[in-house]
Amino acid sequence: QKEVEQNSGPLSVPEGAIASLNCTYSDRGSQSFFWYRQYSGKSPELIMFIYSNGDKEDGRFTAQLNKASQYVSLLIRDSQPSDSATYLCAVNGRSGGSNYKLTFGKGTLLTVNP
Amino acid sequence: DADVTQTPRNRITKTGKRIMLECSQTKGHDRMYWYRQDPGLGLRLIYYSFDVKDINKGEISDGYSVSRQAQAKFSLSLESAIPNQTALYFCATSDPGTTNNEQFFGPGTRLTVL
């Protein structure tokens, strides 16, 4: 059973701070990793993906991947109230049927306080 | 814009009724997915299809069936709705030409079974 674990939160940070969201996964053969943002009542939207160890930066967002530790994180710098949402970690499985399917964590609710 | 659409957006029905949720996409993607989302449980895969002739069960397929009428259309049916099928349902698509399997989500259908 492939699992993706996230802290359920809620995580509350002041405006301008760095928000750190964490995710661990059980399938060591997982190939690629995604962070989706979901506003209440809306559909998930992709904000970052990463498949190589290390950091990947896109504007205020940085995804970090450590395959040895089976750990992926998302840092949001200069957090804004508009970043308040649930963040979903998703993992793409290895080949052989589980490939091309995503397993989602339960999400972490982030609140950025003005 | 290429898009993923779902109809209806909201539906209230009674126990025992047959319900069909429809998904259409103009992205030209071969892969389509149905998820349900419940508070605290994240996104769970119901069924997925990699092309018109391919249908696969996800982790929670009991009580559901699907039909892939065309590359662009993927319908989810509840043959005899029950209250614990009350949830937010999302359709998603992905492009087999990409290596990372990014999924694009429709706006969701909020289903209430009384």
How are the elements arranged and paired?
The complex is a heterodimer of chains A (114) and B (114).
Chain A lengths: L3 E3 L4 E4 L4 E7 L6 E7 L6 E6 L3 E5 L2 E6 L4 E6 L8 E8 L9 E3 L3 E6 L1
Parallel strand pairs in A: 2-11
Antiparallel strand pairs in A: 1-3, 3-8, 4-5, 4-9, 6-7, 7-8, 9-10, 9-11
Chain B lengths: L3 E4 L2 E4 L5 E7 L5 E8 L3 E10 L2 E4 L6 E7 L2 E6 L8 E8 L8 E3 L3 E5 L1
Parallel strand pairs in B: 2-11
Antiparallel strand pairs in B: 1-3, 3-8, 4-5, 4-9, 5-6, 7-8, 9-10, 9-11
Tell me about this structure.
- The complex is a heterodimer of chains A (114) and B (114).
- Helices cover 0% and strands 54% of the residues of chain A.
- Chain A contains no helices and eleven strands.
- In chain A, 37% of the residues are buried.
- Chain B is globular and about 40 Å long.
- In chain B, a hairpin with a 2-residue loop joins β7 (64-70) and β8.
- Chain B has 114 residues and is an all-beta fold.
- In chain B, the strands form two sheets. In chain B, strands 2, 4, 5, 6, 9, 10 and 11 form a seven-stranded mixed β-sheet that branches. In chain B, strands 1-3-8-7 form a four-stranded antiparallel β-sheet, with no helix packed on it.
- Chain B starts with a strand and ends with a strand.
- The chains are: A mainly beta (114), B mainly beta (114).
- Chains A and B meet through β5 and β9 of A and β5, β9 and β10 of B.
Short note summarizing the structure:
The complex is a heterodimer of chains A (114) and B (114). Chain A has strands at 4-6, 11-14, 19-25, 32-38, 45-50, 54-58, 61-66, 71-76, 85-92, 102-104, 108-113. Chain A is mainly β and 114 residues long.
Fraction in beta strands of chain B: over 45%
The most extensive interface between chains reads:
A-B, 23 and 25 residues
Task: Catalogue the unreliable spans of chain B.
Answer: none
As a whole number of angstroms, the C-alpha radius of gyration of chain B is 13 Å
- Largest sheet geometry of chain B: 7 strands, mixed
How many β-strands of chain A, per DSSP? 11
Major sheet of chain A: 6 strands, mixed
- Give the overall pLDDT of chain A as a whole number: 90
Share of residues in helices of chain A: under 10%
Low-confidence stretches of chain A: none
